[in-house]
Design brief:
This protein is α/β, with parallel strands linked by helices. It contains 5 helices and 5 strands; from the N terminus they run βαβαβαβαβα. The mean pLDDT is about 90. A 5-stranded parallel β-sheet has the order 2-1-3-4-5, sandwiched between helices.
């Protein structure tokens, strides 16, 4: 069983994502801010991170950049989950180290499972989903 950290400030989205990933058989931890996400990363062994793109305070791309700069978290697969459809935002997220970008409302559950399992098996990134 893998441990997935979801960093998401919107409670409804967080609850849905937690439920889906739990159904997939993974253990889920959550944080409602980037700063709280770093606290979880310091205390727990995390196998994959899903981070919201837009949060109060530090946004998802900055969170990713800081994760990649820290040797303890640099290799953890990170998926940016965003409502923004701006291609430049997605390119920026990938440039800062996101393995891929999921667009809220555009990803079906089978695709989520497929992508999560890909990373749990040590798969490399391949861009947007």
């Amino acid at each position: 069983m893998a441990v997935v950290l979801i960093v998401e400030d919107h409670e409804d989205t967080l609850q849905v994502m937690m439920r889906i990933i739990t159904i997939f058989g993974h253990h889920v931890l959550s944080a409602e801010t980037a700063e709280a996400g770093f606290a979880v990363l310091a205390a727990e062994k995390i196998d994959l991170i899903i981070v919201d793109g837009m949060m109060p305070g530090m946004n998802g791309t900055e969170f990713i950049r800081l994760c990649r700069a820290d040797e303890r978290t640099a290799q953890i697969p990170i998926i940016l989950h965003t409502a923004l459809t701006d291609e430049q935002f997605s390119r920026d997220a990938i440039a800062k180290g996101a393995n891929e970008v999921w667009h809220k409302g555009r990803l079906d559950i089978d695709r989520m499972r497929e992508r999560l399992e890909h990373y749990m098996k040590g798969g490399a990134s391949d861009g947007n989903a």
